[in-house]
Amino acid sequence: MEKHLKKAKTWNMVLIVLTLITVISGIAGLPKTLNPTFTENEVLGDFNRVMFDYLNSPLTKAISILSLVISIVLLVLYFRANKSLSDEIAPTKAPYYLYIGWSIVGLAINLITTPTMKIDGIDVSFMTTVIGIVFQFLFLIPAILVIVHLFKAEPEE
Known about the structure:
Layout (H helix, E strand, L loop, with lengths): L1 H33 L12 H9 L2 H29 L7 H20 L4 E2 L2 E2 H30 L4
Antiparallel strand pairs: 1-2
Helix pairs in contact: 1-3, 1-5, 3-4, 4-5
């Protein structure tokens, strides 16, 4: 049991670092998110206006703020779980399920709302979507490993 709690603590620390980076970048990018600026970019052509309208939409702003709030809440919950793991007490798995659930919902929202971008006939938005999905699933691995080790740490009945 102790071995699995230590492994869960290690992966929880990885989540703390990743979430801390997410919160810092979210706070730093908040002014640009709330007030995007329109800059003329010849490479993007007509897509520049489409992307500006997307970034300036209330839905995009609301999702960005909600995502930041959820990240801050998760960070607090991860620190509380870290304290429990330090005391060799298995914490609740709820924050990790919340993280996985919000990641999947956020990915679905991005897939639905992000406009299609074609440059010289090449669908750039498809490539960025594939890269985004790969990275999203890579970032889910620490949460999944914490859950696995917490299940393994539970006493058998």
